[in-house]
Amino acid sequence: CFNCHTQKTPLWRRDPNGNTLCNACGLFQKLHGTMRPLSLKTDVIKKRNSRRSSVNGEGVGNNTSTN
After folding, report:
1. Which positions fall inside the GATA-type domain (predicted)?
2. How many independent structural domains does the chain possess?
3. Is the pLDDT of residue 67 over 70?
4. Which residues, in sequence order, are CB contacts of 30 under 8 Å at separation 6+?
5. Is residue 22 part of a domain?
6. Mean of the pLDDT values across residues 25-54?
């Protein structure tokens, strides 16, 4: 990354000047219009758990009515 010098990221982005940024720095720059401070840098990429519906089909996204 041009800003924080990280080597691994889930997604590479570019700033308006064409410099390669990691996902975190790219999103920060897009939202705030300035480079992300190095004090926010972490060495760990956190994984999220995927949403899965329950066994009986009444999980996420199932909004059928019984009326």
Report:
1. 1-48
2. 1
3. no
4. 13
5. yes
6. 80
Q: What residues contact 67, with CB distance under 8 A and at least 6 apart?
A: none
Task: Evaluate whether 40 touches 5 at the Cβ level (below 8 Å).
Answer: no
Tokens 């519906």 found at: 53
For residue 29, count other CB atoms closer than 10 A to its CB. 19
What is the token pair recorded at 52? 């899965």
Is 58 inside any structural domain? no
Using CA atoms, how far apart are residues 16 and 30, in angstroms rounded to an integer? Answer: 9
Residue in this structure with the two tokens 């059928």, named with its chain if needed: 64
* pTM exceeds 0.90 for this model: no
Place of tokens 């041009």: 2
Neighbours of 33 (CB within 10 A): 8
Q: Which two tokens stand for residue 3?
A: 């800003």
